[in-house]
Each structure stands twice: as structure tokens, then as C-alpha cells.
Design a protein that fits this description.
It is a single chain. The protein is an all-alpha fold. The longest helix is centred in the first third of the chain and has 20 residues. The structure holds heme C (HEC). The site of heme C (HEC) has 23 residues, from helix 3, helix 4 and helix 5. Heme C (HEC) binds next to helix 3, helix 4 and helix 5. Pfam families: Cytochrome_CBB3.
Length: about 110
């Protein structure tokens, strides 16, 4: 009987925590990708953290293609921005850029 309870508890814990921590898959939309990869620094609304020197990326002057390239490969003139070449596919980088430039920027 105890084993059944333990098993149920373990499964619930894994399901609950797993959902939040899991890496977004190919079907993840720009919002989910942004939340996973960008929000910790730039904030949920893309307003950045002024005191930590993180710019409001939702108001960037960069073009869509420049944002995609920045996210994937970084830029020499923005050395403090990490690149996500290993985590994001080019398609995912496009989705994140579109979310940033068309959804967040409009807010
Ligand atoms: C570890 C913190 C961190 C994470 C995570 C992060 N960024 Fe940044 N980002 C920065 C910093 C710091 C800069 C400023 C870079 C510089 O000027 O050297 C920046 C700059 C930018 C800029 C340029 C803003 C401008 O016009 O100057 C864009 C766009 C941007 N980030 C988008 C993103 C996106 C999209 C993601 C998620 C895929 C992301 N960032 C994840 C820290 C972060």
C-alpha cells in the first residue's frame, strides 16, 4: 500500500515540476521560448533590468533579422548578450524574434 502512495506522489511531483523545467520542444511558440530563454534577464514584458544593465529588448532598434542573428550568434557590439546557438534552432530564433518585435513591442 505504501508503495502505491509513494509512486503516486513521485509521479505527481515529476509531472508538476517537470512541466515547468522542461526545455521547450519544436512546437513551443515564441512566448514559451521567450519565457524559457529570455525572461530571466529581460523580464516578462521585455523591459529589461535597468539596474543590472540589461536593456529593454522589446524596444530594440534592431531589425528582425538582426535580432535573429543576435540570438543565434551574438554580436560584437553587444558582448553582454549570451547567444543561443546550442539551444535554439533558426526556426525557434525566428519565433522568439517575432514574439519580441510584434507582440511585446506592441504592448
Ligand atoms: C543572461 C542574461 C540575458 C539573457 C538570458 C538574454 N539576454 Fe538579451 N541582452 C542581455 C544583455 C546584458 C544585453 C545588452 C548587450 C550589450 O549591450 O552588450 C542584451 C541585449 C539584447 C538585445 C539588444 C537590445 C538593444 O537594442 O540593445 C536584444 C534584442 C536581446 N537582448 C534579445 C534577447 C532574446 C530574444 C533573448 C532570449 C532568446 C535574450 N535576449 C536573452 C542579457 C540577456
Amino acid at each position: 500500500m505504501n508503495y502505491i502512495w509513494f509512486g503516486t506522489l513521485l509521479t505527481c511531483t515529476l509531472v508538476l515540476t517537470g512541466c515547468n523545467d522542461s526545455t521547450p520542444n519544436d512546437k513551443a511558440d515564441g512566448k514559451a521560448l521567450f519565457a524559457h530563454y529570455c525572461e530571466s534577464c529581460h523580464g516578462q514584458t521585455g523591459n529589461g533590468k535597468f539596474l543590472q544593465g540589461i536593456p529593454a529588448n522589446a524596444h530594440t532598434a534592431l531589425t528582425r533579422q538582426e535580432v535573429i542573428n543576435l540570438v543565434l550568434y551574438g554580436r560584437d557590439d553587444k558582448p553582454a548578450m549570451p547567444n543561443f546557438r546550442k539551444q535554439l534552432s533558426p526556426r525557434q530564433a525566428q519565433k522568439v524574434a517575432d514574439y519580441l518585435l510584434f507582440t511585446l513591442k506592441a504592448q
